[in-house]
Design goal:
Length: 345
Amino acid sequence: MQLTFTSPSALRILHIGGYWRGLNDVVRQMMLGLCSTGATVFEYNTDDHPQALDTEGRPYDRGTFGPVWLREEHLQPVIDEFRPDLIVCNAGGLSFRPAHALQIRKRICLLGIALSDPDVFEPATSKIATNFDVYLTNSEAMIPQYRALGVNVHQWPPATYEGFYRPLPPKPEYRCEVLIFGNGYPDRVPPARALLQRFQTHVYGELWGDYGIASRGLVFGEESLHILSSACITVVFCKTSGGHPIIKPYLFDYPAGGALIATNYLPAVELYFIYGKELIGFETTGELLEKVRFYLDHPEQAEQIRAAGRARVLQEHTWQHVWPRIFRLGEQPAARSTSPVFSGL
């Protein structure tokens, strides 16, 4: 089914997804941003409806090791009553089974989203993507493989929801020179150790203890915003747990929260930000250490980058701006553009 898009306020959208990171979860942020477009949104939080999920006997793993099927007997009554123009299955390996999806697509546009590619492509997303009219992947590198399956696929456009991610006052207990928010993966260990040796560095996340690095744990909700505001520089590593470089949504969330970001050089990031003007880029641990030292010693230049990064996000990369571009993809019967920013739409 093709979506007839006139304006967001004319659309009725059923958004299906779960929020394993609570208030900070990107799926939740996307849902809230969707509401901000003026569309009429029905939120179906799968965390509140575990009975609607079929994992074929596997423990519920949010699509990490296989599809998570939406049970027809639970979802069809919702669809019949709400009568959406568009249904969004947002991440977590979520999909209607093929026969049910085919029936839905006769009158409703189905949009699927993968936020953990390429790590989950083989076990999960490759098995469900053909069930959708439009599919979005967070990994540009996976687009040819999806298209080989006949999927109308485009790259997921990252953005933020500024209604949540905003600067909050710093707190003394969170003050630090360098902040690392994220899990402890092998490629992150050497730079984290080097930063801990040279700067006042706070580390949050899981798995760091496996490498002898103390973590302050997991922090969600508005307290995480106080933490972001209390750090001079926040480091965002670009690789997934499987070692694949991707554009992390935190590159958009954290600047909206007022953070100064240092991140790996990645060509795809340059479609959204200017390194050296809107965020700090580095290729090696040595370069990261040099950049951190420089901007700690030059706070005025650091503040210029911090302010420019936040301004860029708020001007171009909020979900209120980006969702209408996604809606327009639903108007197309076949894949048209591989551009991560949907140029020409």
